[in-house]
Amino acid sequence: QVQLVESGGGLVQPGGSLRLSCVVSRFNLDLYDIGWFRQAPGKELVGVSAINGHAGNTWYADSAKGRFTISRDKNTVYLQMNNLKPEDTAVYYCAAVLRRVGLPTRPRDYTHWGRGTHVTVSS
Question: How far apart are the C-alpha atoms of 25 and 122, rounded to whole Å?
């Protein structure tokens, strides 16, 4: 059973930084694409960033470009978030899907999900 566990969320002031981690277990990360998604209160789940399982290709939503960086090591995918804004407040989820042609960016493309970690950006 594929497992993903997010951590690193919390309360941060505007302009601050957080690094989210997604620890994966019971599967080979090289064979999967990993995405980060977020859901703000009252809003739909949307993609933030994604990384290809093997080649390391990445994708960022416009809202994340220039501020967020996705990376990975053997069994963890990270989302470094800098210059955080109040509109970044959301529950952040990581998700996995077996590697495919192209890099999936939509929630419906992913088959395995973590439980999420809360990020609150507020002064």
Answer: 33
